[in-house]
Fold this protein.
Amino acid sequence: MRRGHRFGVEALRRRDRVADRGAADVLMALRRPVESLLSVALRRVARQRPDVFERLGSFQDASFVLAPDELPVAFRLAPRGTSGTVRVARRADPAPCTARIAGPLASLLGLFDGSIDADAAFFSRSIRVEGDIQAVMALHNTLEAAELTLADLLGLAPPASELANAGLRLVLRRVVIRDAAVTRA
Amino acid sequence: MLRAAVEAGADSIYCGLRDETNARNFPGLNFSPDELAEAVAWAHSRGAKVLVAINTFARAGAMGAWRASVDAAAGARADAIIVADLGVLAYAHASHPDLRLHLSVQAAAGSADAINYYEQAYGVRRVVLPRVLAAPEIAGLVRDISIEVEAFVFGGLCVMAEGRCALSSYATGKSPNLSGVCSPPEAVSLEETDGRLTPRLAGFMLDRFPPGAAAGYPTLCKGRFEARGEASYLFEEPTSLNAMGLLAELRNAGVRAVKIEGRQRGKAYVARVAAAFRGALDALDRGETIESYEPLLSNLAEGGRETSGAYRKTWR
């Protein structure tokens, strides 16, 4: 297990508003099926694309927290090949992790399928990164090389896969246009 | 990423092998020799060329990795290798006489005498110019050499003496010139408190960005430091090169190929930048203006700002 980091947990707790706490309680109560779905998807990708995990090298043992801004919960990813897991945790979960990546859900999905440029998202402060930057770079470069899509993660076959990917592209195009408008303003 | 560049209209793609022999030796990036051969075959099937960067400086007594990379590139039928080190050039020239050699920007060859030496001694066929020359200076240089000239037109900028920067080495023990990494990620930390972002490199605080302010790469050269009570960018500002507006001038100066920096960027960046420059170059070929292409890339820039760099030396 890699060295873990604890990130501003007190600050995160302060931001955990009462309304969010209620929503978090509901999502935490329902987390098991989500965890199961995402972990199965991760392991399926590991079986179908072992090259993806080989490229991660020693960072297969890392644990990444992915925290969408819109959700009161975060996702804890442990990419250990065919035994990889995805867990749902509260945003202010104090458990250590290797790195934490936070930002709008659409940006995180765009980083997953490579349709959003990670450096530009960092420059514009759209995404926020803390912890082991080497692990974050390894994850980013691995995902870029893998050319995975949302449909790959969900295990969808055509035509559902085409619909899912087209839907994500539509959402992400809006994110790119919005970011460009912000930069030019 | 290579596929994204070709599909966006790039004529050639430069890439590296997964080790210290190229200047982007970052985790998860680059090709194994087998992957390189596969990528070259795919690119050739689409009419594109692959140029392999073997552009770090070999360590004394440890040439093995650099020679292996040259052999791997030749074995993969790469169209050229991009080299800076004299020993690596000598090895490639002697061992693979049919392998086309390009002189890397890392060699910092900015005079006709230097470039002509590389051509005569090692058969170098193209020079990638250091980013220190103004467009009229390039025109003057081209008149005195007989090999092709390639110039960077978009992407990150380094402190001016290419291949000679020791800032990363001073702070972390690793440098782009020898280890293939500038500001190695294991030495970088990013701390965000109340929306203020503080990047550090090996403990050196590089800047403190207020909430919402555009950030730059966590390198010492882009750091903002306090001297005599005033905070300023002592080396250079976090700004990206965009010389699209100078494409016609560079072409008239004799530049044969333009280069887009960003091997550590993603395919979204590569596709957008390559498509924009493809469109601009094609527009120039048709005798049209390229103004409509110039604002397409503004939100990709480091620090949210762009410059035409030394090509237009406004400080003179």
